[in-house]
Design brief:
The protein is mainly β and 737 residues long. It folds into three domains: 31-240, Immunoglobulin-like, CATH 2.60.40.1190; 315-497, no CATH class; 512-659. 4% of the residues lie in helices and 51% in strands.
């Protein structure tokens, strides 16, 4: 391939930016006004007590959202059970009252008490609020019949969904002989909106788990769904809602003991008693839709440890972010291909390459909406750590990120971002910048593109990366084509890049029928895709062709088979797959089919299994994995997983075994406990994580944590015990039950 590829890619991306500015507004495919559903929010005439009963008189005068229609199993049919949702407000809160009738109330699934659980086994009701009415972004609040909470931020109609976002709000649920009732109170300070707006986007979905039934108030078509914010209905009467100025301070205190703990401090590894304090998070509303956040000397000891993986590939593993400060409104800072080629990745701040925490002096962030612009700014300073005389020394560093996105037409956007890392004894820097575009040509067809570059001392060429992708999907077909170019010296040190110096060509086609002649089958999917990587000289690096058949049954169980996974991989350097086993350079071709099955999600006991086999470089590899979950009651959950690999190579045979077990006993929604055990035979180590969490008021917690990592593969075993208290100084307790 010629050296003109980067220039050509730049021309393509710039052309798409111009297209985003020139495309007709009719491409937004907005529905005609008469198709919209609307209800009006009512001001509460008296105080509302959040107890899951809806016995206050104000609820009877509120207009209900009714007539839910099924998305699945029978598209457009009325919901099999009647559902009503009412909305009230006062000077501090917006309230939602949900009455979900059920003709078989004894069969309601309600077994989860953990906040932010995935609700895979429970009946749930989900509410979205598009408070800026930009038809792109929304807050999502979900509850099960017990009142257990889950919240998330939806960005760009589901392009990113931040399930780790947490807001302080109240909920309570009750189950009776006719169904269940849930009440919700969301502080207006938890939302972002402009005072005086006349309408918000609004939608509700209900899942009846035992029937595997999903119904929505609007946007019920299978090609849309709850995350398609542009298809939501409207909540009117909001001009009377005014957001109090947000001022929130949540300090923390922590103390504990550790021995050879996996934490880098100013004097290296620490043994003994320790204690500290700081500001977990502070928030100040600059405007009703723009918020500043900051943290001082944060501690993330309550975050659950990473789930270990056995990596038999030659590329780094992507571990997700789990720390609250970095997760808050994280969607605005995403640029690139998540998990593969990101310009900015927050785990590069305050963590070493192997996941050990580094101390942070402070962090400041500003995110929100200014007219048609979504903006984000982040500034963090990490403290120097370790002994300056050793290789493990990490100097003090500054991290700065600035992001802006502009809404164009109905549902498209263009944006730019700049990232800077600076620090060290020689003030070494790494800078990165990029532009991106998301163009919705129709309700089902998107063009996504980006162009990014980095600046590092000593690197003067091949520092650009870009991607252009076309994606079409409806309920019957999916078609995707992608071209991506990653320069050899593209080096976002505060980002994540799986592989450099390659060009990727990708194509995918899927056909998704719903066979009426098989009443026990809900939907099938026949998919084929081809992925081709070449190096900068135009020579093959990796080629992978896949043919897959997936079947979803009416009871939510799934049977999936990959008939073909044909891989051609060119090793230009020896690949040490594990100590003592090195695969020599060469061109290798192999096929690795697999089959998997997962059981009915509504049952108290569920499981999934997968078997994968076939050639592997110069030998053979057999992979077995299984997981199971038991929910005998809402208080106790047991989760088990096992992954086993058996590899036979001329360079040596070996096996790996990774076991994970999590047991949770939840005394109530406020008092939660869990133990997470991992046994990694390949790395010859074991880890134990115990957590007790008492939520004594919304957004205020007492954590008791014990972490232990031991094994023959460790130079220093680690033991740590910690108690941490966080306290929200500004929470109003008047609604607590």
């Amino acid at each position: 391939m010629s050296k003109k590829h980067p220039a050509r890619l730049g021309c393509v991306v710039v052309t798409l930016f111009i297209l985003a500015l020139c495309v007709s507004s009719t491409y937004g495919q907005e529905r005609p006004p008469e198709a919209l559903r609307r209800i009006r929010v009512t001001r509460a005439s008296a105080a509302i007590r959040i107890d899951g009963r809806m016995d206050e008189g104000a609820w009877a005068h509120a207009e209900p959202a009714t007539d839910f229609l099924q998305q699945n199993p029978n598209e457009g049919a009325p919901c099999s059970e009647k559902t009503e949702v009412r909305v009230l407000y006062d000077g501090r809160y917006i309230y939602f009252g949900i009455r979900a009738l059920d003709s078989e109330a004894s069969r309601i699934n309600a077994r989860e008490l953990r906040r932010d659980a995935d609700f895979a086994n429970d009946d749930i009701v989900e509410i979205i609020l598009d408070t800026n009415h930009d038809r792109r972004n929304a807050f999502r609040f979900a509850v099960n019949p017990l009142g257990t909470q889950q919240d998330a931020l939806i960005t760009d109609e589901g392009h990113t969904v931040n399930l780790s976002w947490d807001a302080p709000w109240l909920s309570a649920g009750t189950i009776d002989s006719e169904g269940f009732t849930v009440e919700i109170a969301i502080p207006l300070t938890s939302l972002r909106f402009n005072d005086g707006a006349k309408v918000w986007g609004f939608n509700v979905a209900r899942t009846i788990r035992r029937k595997n039934e999903l119904s929505l108030w609007t946007s019920w078509q299978r090609t849309f769904g709850l995350q398609r914010v542009s298809q939501a209905g409207e909540l009117t009467g909001v001009e009377g809602i005014h957001r109090p100025r947000l001022v929130e301070f949540k300090p923390y205190l922590t103390a504990g003991w550790r021995q050879n703990a996996s934490i880098v401090g100013t004097q290296g590894l620490v043994t003994g008693v320790h204690g500290t304090g700081g500001l977990e998070v502070g928030k100040i509303g600059i405007t009703p839709s723009l918020t500043a956040e900051f943290t001082v000397n944060p501690d993330f000891g309550q975050v659950e440890v990473d789930q270990q993986v056995v990596n038999l590939s030659r590329f780094s593993v992507f571990f997700p972010e789990k720390r609250d400060f970095f997760l808050e409104n994280a969607g605005i800072f995403l640029m690139g291909r998540e998990g593969s080629n990101q310009l900015f990745f927050t785990r590069r701040i305050g963590l070493t390459e192997d996941g050990k925490p580094l101390p942070i002096d402070y962090g400041a962030k500003m995110t929100g909406k200014v007219g048609p612009y979504s903006v984000g700014f982040l500034q963090v300073q990490s403290r120097e750590a370790g002994d300056p005389e050793t290789e493990s020394f990490v100097p003090r560093q500054q991290f700065t990120v600035a992001r802006i996105k502009r809404d164009v037409f109905g549902r498209s956007s263009i944006g730019a971002m700049v990232v800077n890392r600076q620090g060290g004894l020689d003030s070494r820097y790494n800078r990165a910048a990029g532009i991106d575009a998301l163009i919705n040509l129709s309700d089902h067809w998107q063009i996504i593109s980006f162009l990014m570059g980095t600046s590092t001392p000593g690197m003067r060429s091949s520092f650009v990366s870009g991607r252009v992708g076309s994606y079409f999907e409806n309920d019957r077909f999916r078609i995707a084509t992608v071209y991506e170019d990653i320069g050899s010296n593209f080096n976002p040190e505060v980002g994540f890049v799986e592989r450099n110096g390659v060009r990727q060509y990708f194509g995918q086609f899927a056909y998704k029928p719903r066979p009426r002649f098989l009443p026990f089958v809900r939907q099938m999917q026949f998919e084929t895709q081809n992925e081709y990587y070449e190096n900068r000289a135009g020579k093959l690096e990796t080629r992978q062709t896949e043919v897959t058949w997936e079947t979803e049954f009416q009871n939510s169980s799934q049977l999936n088979t990959r008939f073909l996974e044909k891989v051609t991989d060119v090793l230009r350097q020896p690949f040490e797959i594990r100590p003592g086993s090195t695969i020599p350079p060469g061109t290798y071709g192999f096929n690795r089919p697999w089959i998997s099955f997962s059981s009915n999600k509504s049952k108290k006991i569920g499981f999934s299994v997968r078997e994968k086999w076939g050639d592997f470089y110069s030998g053979r590899r057999f992979e077995s994995s299984a997981s199971a979950i038991a929910r005998p009651s809402e208080h106790f959950i047991l989760e088990l997983s096992e992954s086993y690999n058996r590899v036979h190579l001329p360079q040596g045979s070996f096996s790996t075994n990774l076991f994970g077990g999590r047991a949770s006993y939840n005394f109530s929604r406020k008092l939660l406990s869990a133990v997470f055990v991992q046994l990694n035979q390949a790395a010859r180590l074991s880890s134990v994580n115990l957590r007790l969490r008492y939520i004594f008021r919304p957004n205020s917690d007492l954590f008791v944590i014990y972490n232990q990592t031991t094994g023959r593969g460790l130079e220093r075993p680690s033991y740590q015990f910690q108690v941490k208290l966080t306290y929200n100084l500004t929470w109003n307790q008047q609604l607590e039950n």
